[in-house]
Please model this.
Amino acid sequence: VGGGPVRWVQRSEVPADARFFGLGGRAAGPRLRDGVYGLWNTDPGGRFGPGDDPLSLTMPVQVVVSDAGTHLMFHDNSWAGRVVLREGEEGAGSGHDRPGACEVRMEGGPLRCWVVAGTPARVLQGWTALTGAPALPPSWALGPQHARWGFGNEEEVRRVVDGYRERGLPLSVLHLDIDHYDAHRVFTVDRARFPALPTLAKELREDGVRLVSIVDPAVKAEPGDAVFDAGAAVGERGAYVRDARGRVVVGEVWPGASVYPDFTDPLVRDWWGSLYEERLAQGFSGVWHDMNEPVSFAAFGDPSLPRSARHALEGVGGDHREAHNVYALAMARAGYEGLLRFRPEERPFLFSRSGWAGMQRYGGTWSGDVSTGWPGLRASLSLVVGLGLCGVPYSGPDVGGFDGFPSPELYLRWFQLGAYLPLFRTHAAIDAGRREPWEFGPEVLEHARAALVERERLRPYFVTLSQVARMTGAPYVRPMWWGAPGDRALRECEDAFLLGDALLVAPVLEAGTRRRAVRLPRGRWYDTATGRAYEGPGRVQVDAPLSRVPVLARAGAVIPVRGADGGPELEVWAPAPGCTGGGLVVRDPGDGWAEAAVERYVTRWEGDRVVVERDGAEGG
Model:
């Protein structure tokens, strides 16, 4: 990957028991085994699975976990490169350990490295102190979302939303893909298909459903196009990336021949951000950035801009070798600042297919075009866990996969996983099968309904997790070793995750599974469906019927949930005998900028009853 000459190499050794994580979004993780990992944001071309690398979002950010401790290493260099990992081996050779090794090979740029060490929580807190706190999504963005490339027209949008409502299924957001544009031209609307988009958006919003718009960076290279002409008039040389001879670079994207704004120029970012006023005027509540690796369609070779293309790079100047990996990061900044400019009273909602270190300041990401199949389902979990360890806590996959036709069982298991991930969104290609829950038969519909209802019941918990991520950098979705990095068995566990401090989610990742093994961290854990208690550390067998995936609650946990009347309640799980517990609750302060108050609760036994007290509150 990259293919250019290596300018410098940095090698390091790690203990034999160390395990590697991170490097952005990787389909083959979350534990990164021996291999070569590219550092070049790449469109995988419509589908990807665990064997594909690199993908849309790479970062030179790795987390290393061993008995000796946890550390994060960031090579502060956006050039193309490769990371070669080799896990160690205990007792190798004549009874001696063979240490692991990491080799970073960069094609240019500085050898500048940051290291943060400590517990996993301290490491992520230090990382976000260095690169910025995660943007706080509006609370409605923590609800169920539905997308499709190919809704086609306003009538189909209404039909899908009515389908959710008629079946009593919660829905918070519906996304419009490139087919709502006029001839795929960004910041336009096909008036034949969507004759009254602002009215549609207003009516849906009154019914509790927000519209979110796709935004691609490519601008149709055609004089007379309003966006193209406006960009050409920016500054002295226009807004678009040029080649070494000063000619505007032209690529091929959905509108046809297209040009690319240079988001590494502050003047261009300011202009691009001004265009989001049109999206807000159409009634959209947020945006998702696509094709921003950036992509230029190619029959072979790298589907991006020429490496010799020139960029402003914040006034320093340079070529695409240095600008490529930060292109989407700069675009996210432009979009975020534009949305904030026109709606300063609301938190912007933005997520992006590509990005780089620090992108969490402007929003989250999604998996991109994950392939439909059981390997794609497993890759979905890998991406979310790995990105969270790189400081991007808000992410999720295309539920059901982007391409193809999932079986009812695969769709349901993907749906059940998505219900416990930060971004819960179905999405599919224009030529793929439907992704509405009622398209897979009555049994799948009822089980999907249960997953949606549980997601809505847990909405206050997701609000709390989003606030905790903002304040501490801790991801919503955490690897099993998060609280016990010294537990080697947990470092090997890749088929389950912790959702905050309170819940352990064990998704079903293989066809036909109705019972599965779960590796437990230390302490008592309750099966939330049956109430049965299990003692960790250890490995237990739990039921995983088609109707649900196993979810276990930590003993002593306090979880904010939505009660039957819609108001907040506390769900409390009894501490183990002789132990105490507790949890944090951050109430939803609305979608503005009000500072949220953190409530701390403690649980303990008092005789034969469990007492719950708010820490510091008068009267207990």
Notes: Residues 327-342 form the longest helix (16 residues).
